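Entry 12.
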Amino acid sequence: MAMKNVHGNTVDHLGAAIVSGRYPAGTSVPPEPALCEELGVSRTVVREAVKSLIAKGLVTSGPKVGTKVQPPDQWNWFDPDVIVWQGRAGITAEFLRDLQDLRRVVEPAAVRMAAERASAADIAEIEAAFEGMRIAVEEGGDYVSSDLRFHQGLLRASGNRMIVQMSKALGALLRTSFEISTRRKDGPRHSLPLHRAVLDAVAAHNPSRAEKAIIVLIESASNDIDSVLASRRGLPRPGRPPLRVRSPA
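Predicted 3D structure (tokens):
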């Protein structure tokens, strides 16, 4: 367990340093002896950490060239660690644009399939997630986790194994989007009926209506994100405790 923690901490330290730009793309990270001394770990731990970073697309390693930092377009943006490190370094407008573009590509098609194929159990799961969102709005609580559960439920209800797998990978990205969009004043309260419209269309097995409803929801979230960015209120950092909606006075 201790070794695992040491390994995890080393990966975390180096990954965060790369994503923050401390080690820019095209440069080499310090050699093993320097990292061992800086981090107080063994060469074995450093080597295993580098292997993890190679798997995440952050670095490449080879004889005589050392461990080179890859440009951001090579990083695995579906890796939750990469998302957390980007959050610490600061969420950029480009990151949010890419994320919203991805949602526009994936979710309408997946929701259309969900309306065609959703089982009673799938719909019950999405309904339960919606109820969690409603309670968070009406009484206060963790809205974002229920929002994430709602959207992942829709993706799973598509019945497509590859989209179901993608829903797991998308989790950290979607949470980041929701943490930002829900910072708009009364954002969750306004988005609740938009979620209801998606759920009702899926439950009615109406693919066309479901697709239109999710597009409205995604565009509303984009507007909320633009509003938060324009207000300069500062962006949340993924990995922090979930934002809680205050209960009405």
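Annotation: Residues 238-249 have pLDDT under 50 and may be disordered. The domain at 90-245 is CATH 1.20.120.530 (Four Helix Bundle (Hemerythrin (Met), subunit A)).
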